[in-house]
TrEMBL record:
It holds the Pfam family FkbO_Hyg5-like_N. It comes from mine drainage metagenome. Gene3D superfamilies: RutC-like (3.30.1330.40). This is Endoribonuclease L-PSP. Residues 72-197 form the Chorismatase FkbO/Hyg5-like N-terminal domain. The lineage of its organism: unclassified sequences, metagenomes, ecological metagenomes. SUPFAM superfamilies: YjgF-like.
Length: 353
């Protein structure tokens, strides 16, 4: 068994000495408020701590990435590199980097702080990949403040795209058909926060036949195209893991169903279905479907949450495995974005000690 992911509450994480902790590569935690939570690094796993309301009532939700091969082999190691904290073994590395936008000001004055911070963050990540010999990035999670805001004559998401692309180009990673999966969301009042998953086995990059590849978007979406693929598929000896990028109501390169959150939900699910079908075609078996993948749903307007959930329920049927959080989406007209992981999802790891 290679990678596994699970969800638990942060109180579960902070309870001491859970056996799963020694297999945890890292965590991405969403929480409404930080009050009452002990943020001390009592748990030695790299953790992205994101301020975002959970829409189904929970106080917080942490996605934990586990590597269970380590049960039988060497323990995971924790280390840092520049502003990166990471945990790793011989197969996988999970890292996170947090940069304030004012921290990287040495550059030219006409380059925005967000663009500079983004380029700096990605350059550090690529340098780490080089120095530790993890040649492949499977997945990036990107969170920034005020993603639709405009400064320096450019929307902030587009500034992010310029900084990211420049770092990809500088390090030789801007290769079509070999880009990692990703998502990019806006949160209230956050520094630039990036988590990533690296490895030593090449993934297969997957595109969506219904969509223009993001790295080929026309210039109307900004001066630099977004450096990501629609999904990455990781085949190991024991199983296959699918990392699906943030997916939205985009067909071709155009946003569809402005102001209609139900129709956007349906279109997004059709896109997810198309990506899954593409993965199954490459695997030559019906491995993945909408019922056996785990979703994280980012909803722009809190009030839309019941409409999104109902439409997902209607479209997919059965029990859907999803966490819903409030976040801003990278195009002003987009009302939701859904990312997904398929492979080995643990239903529950956390039990009372
Ligand atoms: C889109 O399809 C919607 O910039 O990393 C989705 C996933 C989106 C990842 C990124 C952006 C990103 O263009 C937005």
């Amino acid at each position: 068994m290679a990678l596994q992911t699970t969800y638990m509450s942060s109180s579960g994480i902070f309870q001491q000495i859970h056996p799963w902790q020694k297999n945890a590569l890292g965590a991405i935690c969403f929480m409404e408020s930080s009050v009452g939570v002990n943020f001390e690094e009592s748990v030695e796993i790299p953790r992205l701590q994101l301020h975002a309301p959970i829409l189904d009532g929970a106080e917080d939700a942490c996605e934990i990435w586990l590597n269970n091969t380590t049960l039988a082999s060497k323990p995971l190691r924790l280390d840092s590199y520049g502003a990166i904290r990471y945990r790793f073994n011989d197969e996988f590395l999970f890292g996170r980097i947090t940069l304030c936008e004012s921290e990287s000001q040495q550059g030219e004055a006409d380059i925005s702080p967000l663009q500079q911070a983004t380029e700096s963050a990605y350059r550090q990540i690529f340098a780490l990949m080089n120095s530790l010999d993890y040649p492949y990035a499977y997945r990036f999670w990107n969170y920034m403040a005020n993603i639709n805001g405009i400064s320096h004559g450019l929307e902030r998401y587009r500034q992010f795209n310029v900084g990211r692309k420049d770092a990809f180009l500088a390090s030789g990673h801007e290769v079509r058909d070999q880009l990692p999966a990703a998502c990019a969301l806006g949160l209230v009042d956050t520094p630039l926060n990036i988590a990533f998953l690296l490895g030593r086995k090449a993934p297969i990059a997957i595109e969506n036949p219904r969509q223009v590849s993001a790295y080929e978007y026309p210039e109307e979406y900004g001066p630099s195209t977004p450096s990501f693929s629609r999904a990455t598929l990781l085949r190991t000896e024991t199983d296959d893991m699918l990392f699906i990028s943030g997916t939205a109501s985009i067909v071709g390169h155009q946003t569809l169903h402005q102001s209609d959150v139900v129709a956007q939900t349906r279109e997004t699910l059709a896109n997810l279905d198309a990506v899954i079908t593409e993965a199954n075609r490459i695997l030559n078996k019906k491995q993945f479907n909408l019922q056996n993948i785990f979703f994280r749903v980012y909803v722009r307007h809190t009030a839309d949450f019941p409409l999104v959930r109902n439409e997902m329920q209607r479209y997919i049927g059965g029990t859907i495995k999803a966490v819903f959080v409030q976040a801003d989406i990278c195009r002003q007209e987009l009302l939701l974005e859904i990312e997904a992981t398929a492979g080995h999802i643990l239903e529950l790891v956390c039990t009372q000690p």
